[in-house]
């Protein structure tokens, strides 16, 4: 038996409809045209997953610069049910982790997961993600409407901001100044 070929490919105007169809099947929420327009401009942050040249999964991310930090937000990461547990999701998460590592300038990676999706929660925990918050009524048209925020910290955000003249505030020491 030959081994299955699993690989990631770019999202392009020629295959964006496959991404739309995949997301419709995999996720209980729908995404608007702006989502797909942004995905086309996302480069390495949006990938289709192929199993023997058939699109079976996808990952779509964006850079989030709110809260005084630079974070990668996984908007979607999903795989068709018959192709789960074959390493496709792992390949997609590893792609994201590699991107973040090569960039070297991210504080964390985060995503939202429906609170009852234990399979997804366990999957992300294997990669060092932790539940850091639960947002009530996050989803508008599905039940349960609550979502966990899962996060993997890459580095602690900077807590001391430089003063106006460029110097850093004096840190407290152990009393031996």
Automatic annotation (TrEMBL):
PROSITE patterns xref list:
GNAT (PS51186)
A GO cellular component entry from the record: NatA complex
Reactions the enzyme catalyzes: N-terminal L-methionyl-L-threonyl-[protein] + acetyl-CoA = N-terminal N(alpha)-acetyl-L-methionyl-L-threonyl-[protein] + CoA + H(+); N-terminal L-methionyl-L-leucyl-[protein] + acetyl-CoA = N-terminal N(alpha)-acetyl-L-methionyl-L-leucyl-[protein] + CoA + H(+); N-terminal L-methionyl-L-phenylalanyl-[protein] + acetyl-CoA = N-terminal N(alpha)-acetyl-L-methionyl-L-phenylalanyl-[protein] + CoA + H(+); N-terminal L-methionyl-L-seryl-[protein] + acetyl-CoA = N-terminal N(alpha)-acetyl-L-methionyl-L-seryl-[protein] + CoA + H(+)
Question: Does the record carry Transferase as a key word?
Answer: yes
> What are the entry keywords?
Acyltransferase, Cytoplasm, Transferase
Superkingdom field: Eukaryota
- Protein localization: Cytoplasm
Annotated GO molecular function terms are:
protein N-terminal-methionine acetyltransferase activity
Asked if the keyword Lyase belongs to this entry, the reply reads: no
Q: Membrane spanning segments where?
A: none
The N-acetyltransferase domain extends over 6-155
UniProt-listed Enzyme Commission number(s)? 2.3.1.258
Question: Which processes are annotated in GO (biological process)?
Answer: mitotic sister chromatid cohesion
What's this protein's name?
N-terminal methionine N(alpha)-acetyltransferase NatE
Q: Which organism is it from?
A: Parnassius apollo
